[in-house]
Specification:
- By secondary structure, the chain is α/β, with parallel strands linked by helices.
- It has a domain at 10-124 and 153-262: Ribonuclease Z/Hydroxyacylglutathione hydrolase-like (Metallo-beta-lactamase, Chain A, 4-Layer Sandwich), CATH 3.60.15.
- It is built from nine helices and 16 strands.
- It has helices spanning 58-70, 88-101, 112-121, 127-135, 139-149, 225-236, 255-277, 284-289, 305-324; strands spanning 16-19, 22-28, 36-44, 47-51, 78-82, 104-108, 164-166, 169-172, 177-182, 191-195, 200-204, 243-246, 292-293, 298-299, 328-333, 336-341.
Length: 351
């Protein structure tokens, strides 16, 4: 079946020059509200380095071939693919290109447990996210998501291990030096690539210009995805500021400024979450239903099942950070986490 593609202006703009030897090519995504994923082409002598690989669908490969041809290259010139994280829209075409032309694939070492678990469970369904839903009191939603996502046949070939597991440090190519910075949160092993000499930050899904990324959407998590994400946002600001080159959305702007906006957003969201909880004792599913979602402030009931899952799990992550900060307490009741305000915590106006 032909993929249904939803393209916006930034997502259908063709090849964009970032620097004389750095270009952005948006690649299409099927049935995905993100519209496209940005792949960055780094010209390195006779070789081409890609930051992220795209989703392994024919339309994506065609768009990549067309973009490379406009730059005087073909797929065979792609020698290295540095992936920011293991999600399908970033990783699977990298594996396909390795099989096709011998490109070497790089991935953060923190993604290794998830890939190994994927090989064991043999399903693309995010079973850990479903477990979080059940702990949040959303059993029926978890079952609905499992049914919706479990109908596709599992293809193990697109989830092969990378050639290199990346630790923090600098990767030196002929013309490009890229600092690998682990930024867990969106996934456990997410990394960003910082080109300090050119002042560029290839931020993957860690720092996005118009939306806040989902937190901890993967097979395995460290248990503190939002806390780690906030720490990772702070970490980005400890390096010199750089031009933001995100995986989704237009390129440009200050990485520091956008990281500050995301931190402020989560501060507000933490307040919204504790206000939605009120003085009751409740689970994350109930709290999520009392919050508004996306930049358009959509009621929870208007989200589809997949986005309801993301909303509930994000609410649980915010509630857990509030517990960690001493503003809430929780108890397990029949396997469901129920939250209550800690003694002495008042409203946002009283703090």
């Amino acid at each position: 079946m032909k993929a249904k593609l939803d393209r916006g202006p930034w997502a259908s703009s063709g090849v964009e020059a970032i620097r004389p030897d750095v270009h952005r090519i948006p690649l299409p995504l099927p049935d995905d509200g993100l519209r496209a994923v940005n792949v960055y082409v780094l010209e390195d002598g006779d070789d081409v380095i890609l930051i992220d690989g795209g989703w392994a669908i024919p339309e994506s490969r065609q768009a990549l071939e067309t973009g490379l041809a406009a730059l005087g290259h073909d797929l065979g010139d792609v020698s290295h693919i540095l992936v920011t994280h293991v999600h399908r829209d970033h990783y699977t075409q990298a594996v396909e290109l390795r099989r096709l032309v011998g490109s070497r694939v790089y991935l953060g070492a923190g993604e290794r447990p998830g890939l190994e678990m994927l090989d064991e469970v043999r399903t693309d369904v995010p079973v850990t996210s479903l477990d979080t839903l059940r702990r949040a009191g959303a059993d029926e939603l978890a079952e609905r998501v499992r049914r919706d996502m479990g109908c596709d046949e599992f293809d193990a070939s697109i989830w092969e291990a990378p050639d290199h597991w990346l630790a923090p440090g600098v990767i030196q190519f002929e013309r490009h030096a890229l600092r690998v910075v682990p930024t867990p949160g969106h996934t456990r092993g997410h990394v960003v690539y910082l080109d300090e000499s050119r002042g560029l930050l290839y931020s993957g899904d860690h720092v996005l210009p118009h939306i806040t990324p989902s937190i901890g959407f993967e097979l395995t998590t460290s248990g503190r995805p939002l806390a780690e994400y906030l720490d990772s946002l702070h970490l980005v600001t400890t390096f010199a500021d750089a031009e933001l080159l995100p995986a989704h959305g237009p390129a440009g702007g200050s990485a520091h400024a956008r990281a500050a906006e995301l931190l402020a957003h989560h501060d507000t969201r933490l307040d919204d979450t504790i206000d939605a909880l009120g003085r009751r004792t409740s689970d994350a599913f109930a709290v999520a239903r009392d919050l508004l979602w996306t930049r358009r402030e959509v009621p929870f009931a208007e989200l589809n099942a997949f986005n309801q899952m993301l909303a509930v799990n994000e609410t649980a992550a915010h509630l857990d950070v509030l517990v960690e900060r001493g503003r809430l307490a929780f108890e397990l009741v029949a396997g469901v986490k129920r939250y209550v305000r800690a003694d002495g915590d008042g409203s946002r106006d009283a703090r």
